[in-house]
Structure formats: C-alpha cells, structure tokens
C-alpha cells in the first residue's frame, strides 16, 4: 500500500509540467497543438514502468515566451481539449484511455470535465475489472500565473460471471458465480502558482487536498443446479482516505529544474466478510497515516522551434524507511506546432 502511494505520487509529479526547456534563439514561436510521448521506469526494475502518448489542442495560440517552456500551456490560461493513452506496470498491468477539456470564461472562471477508462487486464474467474472515471472541476485564475479549483471525481465499475464445472455432482452441474462492485467518490481542492524571480527563472508552487470514500464488494457463489442457497462468500472493503500533496519546483534556468514533493495520507479502512461458509463475520480495520517525500530534477532540450527532448529523475522516500531502492527515470519527446 505504501509503495503504491509512492508510485502514484511519483507518476503525478513527473508529468511533462515539471520539466524545463532549453532557451533557443527563436522565442517568438506560438503553437496550438502539442503531442508528447514518454517512457518512465524504476532503475531497480526496468521491466516495470509506464509509457504514455498525449495530444492537446489550445483554442488560442500559446506563446512560448510566457514563463518556462514546460509551463507554457498552463500559464496560457486558454480553453483546451486533450486525449491521452497510457500503459503501466508500476503497480499492476493496466491501460488507461483519457479525454478531458477545459473552458475558460472572459471573467477568468473556468470549468473542466474528464473521462478515463482503465483496463486492468484482470481476468480472474473471467471478470472484467475495468473502471470508468468521471471528473468535473470549477476554478478561477486570480492572476496571470495562479489558479485555484475544486473538483469531484467518481470512479466505478462492476461485472459478474458464471462458470460451470465440467464434472457433475449427483447429476447436477456444479456452478460458480463471481461478481464485483466498486464505487469511489473523491472531493478535492487544488492550487497552483508560478512566481517569477529576478535571480533565476521562477518557482512553481502546487498544493492539493482530497477526500475519497470507496466501497468495494466481491461476491463468490457456488451451488448445484438450480439450488443457489448452497454457499455465498462476500468480501467488503469500506475505505476513507484523506490525501495532501504539496510541491515546489525551482526553475533555475529555462533548461533545468530541481524540486521536492511531500505527500501525506490518512486511511481508515474496514474489511469484513458478512457472508461466509461458516457463518462467521470476520472483520479487520486499518487506521493509520503515511508520509512520503520525493526529490526530483528535470531537463528539457528545445532543439528546434517545434521539437524538444525531455528527461526527469526522481527519488522517493517515506517516513518508515520502506522506500523503493532505485530512482525513477522519465524520457520523452515533444512536438508543438
């Protein structure tokens, strides 16, 4: 669980926004389309990692002169739409399909919507454990480089499957029926601000708090013929998680950044088996908190007006010393036109 928290925080911190760009002689280039592809992996296991491909369109041209290159799209405060495909093996083998859009009003208020579908590739007893995720957000740009927003996310999925044993019992087929039902609701607030500096390019500060309430039920039935009363096993997880994340990236030049991130989560997780073969309701509860830290550095080589190469390195830690042994690398290419 703690490794999962570190991995999720790490992946979110190494999106293209935290890289920097190398300055070129041609700084008047504007763009409305952006395509990027990247591969990230841990040094202690190059077989586990994530690669993703993304595209974004901005309704109005984005200037590369407004802040660091990596933050041009964010600081443009322009309406935009985008899509992304990712395949990851960090926590489990899964694929994610993602589309989102943001509309900015003249008053500097903005609204956003997102839909993502995860394909975990799990075929346990033939179950399709894919999840659908929806997010809606409302925010405000209170100056040219700062924003705050609130958001609501729903992540859910369900499926069932029936299998028949090929060896009949007393002339009746021995049937298995499995099902799962998952639903999670998240409420959050996040803020971001870029502060330009005279001695170096600037500092980006970000912070977020969110609360997630999730219900996860797994059912397992087995019975003979039409008699469905033979047995039912049920496993239920009820979780409540508070999550806080703060980060600072120092843009030392338009080519190089160093930064740090702190994440804290408080978990109240209850597990129970209200229906079992022996009729006993087994229960367990986890009530604890975890902290994790990440230090990172990033570089963006803008070798032409339209193309760039990016690299990021990050090292995670946590408060009990149970941290991944290696560091996380991310390499990518970017096209803007």
Automatic annotation (TrEMBL):
The keyword Signal applies. InterPro entries: Porin_7. Keywords: Signal. It comes from the Bacteria. Residues 1-21 form the signal peptide. Pfam families: Porin_7 (PF16956). The keyword Signal applies. This is Porin.
């Amino acid at each position: 669980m703690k490794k999962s928290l570190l991995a999720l925080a790490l992946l979110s911190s190494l999106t293209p926004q935290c890289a920097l760009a190398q300055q070129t002689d041609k700084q008047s280039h504007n763009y409305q389309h952006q395509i990027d592809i990247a591969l990230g992996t841990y040094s202690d296991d190059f077989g586990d990692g994530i690669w993703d491909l993304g595209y974004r369109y901005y309704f109005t041209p984005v200037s590369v002169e407004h802040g660091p290159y990596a933050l041009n799209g964010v600081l443009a405060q322009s309406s935009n739409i985008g899509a992304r495909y990712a395949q990851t093996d960090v926590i489990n083998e899964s694929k994610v399909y993602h589309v989102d859009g943001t509309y900015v009003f003249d008053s500097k208020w903005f609204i956003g919507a997102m839909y993502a579908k995860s394909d975990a590739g799990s075929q346990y007893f033939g179950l399709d454990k894919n999840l659908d995720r929806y997010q809606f957000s409302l925010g405000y740009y209170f100056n040219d480089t700062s924003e705050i927003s609130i958001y609501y996310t729903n992540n859910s999925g369900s499926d069932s499957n029936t299998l028949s044993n090929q060896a009949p019992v007393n002339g009746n087929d021995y049937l298995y029926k499995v099902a799962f039902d998952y639903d999670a609701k998240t409420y959050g607030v996040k803020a971001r601000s870029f502060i330009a500096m005279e001695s170096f390019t600037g500092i980006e500060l970000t912070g977020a708090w969110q609360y997630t309430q999730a219900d996860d039920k797994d059912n397992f039935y087995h019975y003979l013929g039409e008699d469905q009363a033979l047995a039912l096993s049920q496993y239920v997880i009820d979780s409540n998680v508070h999550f806080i994340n703060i980060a600072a990236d120092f843009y030392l030049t338009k080519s190089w950044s160093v930064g740090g991130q702190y994440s804290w989560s408080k978990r109240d997780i209850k597990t129970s088996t209200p229906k079992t073969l022996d009729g006993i309701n087994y229960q367990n509860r986890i009530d604890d908190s975890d902290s994790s830290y990440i230090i990172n550095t990033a570089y963006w080589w803008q070798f032409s007006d339209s193309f760039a190469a990016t690299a990021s390195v990050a090292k995670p830690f946590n408060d009990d010393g149970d941290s991944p042994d290696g560091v996380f690398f991310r390499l990518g290419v970017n096209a803007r036109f």
